[in-house]
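Researcher: We plan to redesign the surface later, but first we want a full-length starting point. C-alpha cells attached.
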C-alpha cells in the first residue's frame, strides 16, 4: 500500500511541476524512461525512439524518453498514461524544456572540482553526489569530465526536490565543457614560460631536481579529489623551489602537464595553472 501511495505522489508532484512550466515524465525502476510501445518500436511510428531528435510521433504513452515530457495536465492524467504512473518509480523532467541546465556531479571528486571551478548556484543532493542547476539551456553530454555529465536539451533528469540556493545564470565555464579537444596520442604540448633564473642554484646535484619533479608527478597522479587545485598547488611548489635558478626546462613542464592531463585536466587548464603560479611567485 505504501508503494501505491508513493506512486500517487509521483503524479501529484508531476502536476505541480507542470503548472510551474517544468516538462515532466514518469520514470520506471532504475531511473530510466519507459521503453517504446509496440506501435513505436523500431521507429515504426515515424518518431525518434532513439531520442536523439524530437519527432512527429503523437503517441499518448510516455514511451519516447525526454521527448515524452510535457506540461499538459490533460496528457499527464490521461488514461493512456495511468499505468505508467502506477508503475513509476520516480518523476523525471526535461531540464532544457524548463530553461535549465543540470551539471550532474557523480562523486566527491567531481563535487570538489565544481566547488573550485564553477560559480555557486542552486544545488540538489543526489544518491552519489549533487546536481548543480543553472538558469539557461545548452546541449547535453555525458562524461565531459570524470564524474561530470551535462543534462539540458534532449535529456532528462530525476526530480529530487527544489534544492537550496539561488539559481545562477548559465556561465561560459559550463558551456566550454562541451568544447572537446581532439584526443591526442600523447599529452598535448603547450608553450609556457619557463623561468630563466639568475638566482643561486640550491641543487647539490641533478638528482635533487629529478627527485623533485618525480615527487610532483606522483602528487598529481595520486590526487583523489580536487585535482585542479592539486595541480595548481603542485606547480606552485615546483616553481617555488626550482623556478629561480634557471634549472627547469621544457621537458620538466611537459612531464608535469602530462601527469595533470592523465587526471583529466585540459591543456588550457594546465597552462592557466602554471601562469597563475608564476604570477603568484613574481616570476
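Model: Full-length starting sequence:
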Amino acid at each position: 500500500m505504501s508503494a501505491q501511495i508513493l506512486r500517487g505522489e509521483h503524479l501529484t508532484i508531476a502536476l505541480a511541476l507542470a503548472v510551474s512550466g517544468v516538462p515532466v515524465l514518469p520514470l520506471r525502476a532504475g531511473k530510466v524512461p519507459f521503453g517504446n510501445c509496440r506501435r513505436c518500436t523500431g521507429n515504426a511510428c515515424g518518431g525518434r525512439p532513439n531520442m536523439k531528435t524530437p519527432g512527429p510521433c503523437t503517441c499518448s504513452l510516455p514511451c519516447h524518453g525526454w521527448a515524452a515530457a510535457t506540461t499538459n495536465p490533460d496528457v499527464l492524467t490521461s488514461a493512456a498514461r495511468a499505468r505508467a504512473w502506477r508503475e513509476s518509480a520516480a518523476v523525471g523532467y526535461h531540464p532544457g524544456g524548463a530553461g535549465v541546465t543540470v551539471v550532474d556531479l557523480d562523486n566527491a571528486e567531481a563535487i570538489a572540482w565544481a566547488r573550485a571551478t564553477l560559480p555557486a548556484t542552486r544545488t540538489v543532493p543526489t544518491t552519489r553526489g549533487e546536481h548543480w542547476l543553472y538558469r539557461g539551456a545548452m546541449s547535453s553530454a555525458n562524461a565531459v569530465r570524470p564524474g561530470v555529465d551535462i543534462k539540458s536539451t534532449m535529456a532528462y533528469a530525476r526530480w529530487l526536490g527544489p534544492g537550496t540556493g539561488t539559481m545562477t545564470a548559465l556561465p561560459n565555464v559550463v558551456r566550454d565543457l562541451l568544447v572537446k579537444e581532439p584526443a591526442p596520442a600523447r599529452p598535448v604540448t603547450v608553450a609556457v614560460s619557463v623561468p630563466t633564473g639568475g638566482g643561486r642554484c640550491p641543487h647539490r646535484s641533478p638528482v635533487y631536481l629529478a627527485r623533485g619533479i618525480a615527487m610532483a608527478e606522483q602528487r598529481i597522479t595520486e590526487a583523489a579529489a580536487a585535482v585542479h587545485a592539486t595541480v595548481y598547488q603542485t606547480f606552485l611548489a615546483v616553481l617555488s623551489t626550482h623556478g629561480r635558478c634557471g634549472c627547469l626546462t621544457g621537458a620538466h613542464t611537459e612531464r608535469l602537464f602530462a601527469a595533470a592531463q592523465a587526471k583529466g585536466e585540459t591543456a588550457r587548464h594546465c597552462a592557466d595553472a602554471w601562469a597563475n603560479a608564476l604570477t603568484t611567485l613574481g616570476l
